[in-house]
Here is the input.
Amino acid sequence: SRGKTVSPGPGEHPLQYNYTFWYSRRSPSRPASTQNYEQNIRRIGTVASVEQFWKFYSHLVHPGDLSGPSDFHLFKEGIKPMWEDECNRSGGKWIIRLRKGLASRFWENMILAMVGEQFMVGEEICGAVVSIRFQEDFLSIWNRTSSDQTTTSRIRDTLRRVLNLPASTIMEYKTHNDSLRDNSSF
Amino acid sequence: GTRIIYDRKFLLDMRNSPIAQ
Here is the structure.
């Protein structure tokens, strides 16, 4: 459902959108498929205010402390963190590779920018993902319209600013269509 | 319409507010 399931409490600071936290664990032994992915992803909660965000966030393990390949996702309520969701189908994502040890801090800065509406791209942002892997970690931020270059450039520039990325950091944009076609993510 | 914008500093300050504990 696309409706709001939670609301800010009395006196709390509302967010522009409600956001849902999701967690997924990769099972490397099984081939990637939509069905496996849906079985492995868990919705862990939705927040509607700054206060609820912190309350929730402070109870989560820092992504950098997770063991084994796993992902945290933070998506606008009602948007599933899947390529096939109607809000994602025509979209894509910016991907940033991180060496080990940086994921927790960068993830926090990225989601603060997202829930604080720092990207200034209207309805375009769908959600964000941190992916913990063996050799390196990845951040990604998903938007609705991969063909909208003004938007994707603005998202890239905002990310560089809020994460204070070195100029040498490689950022790659990938459409979900391409991800679906080559059936790969990281 | 109006968008609800929060900068990083505000959000981090809110983290320590009693209601968010």
User: Anything to note?
Assistant: Strands of chain A lie at 14-25, 41-49, 70-76, 92-99, 125-132, 136-143, 171-175. Chain A touches chain B at residues 11-16, 50-51, 53-55, 58, 109, 112-113, 115-118, 162 (CB under 8 Å).
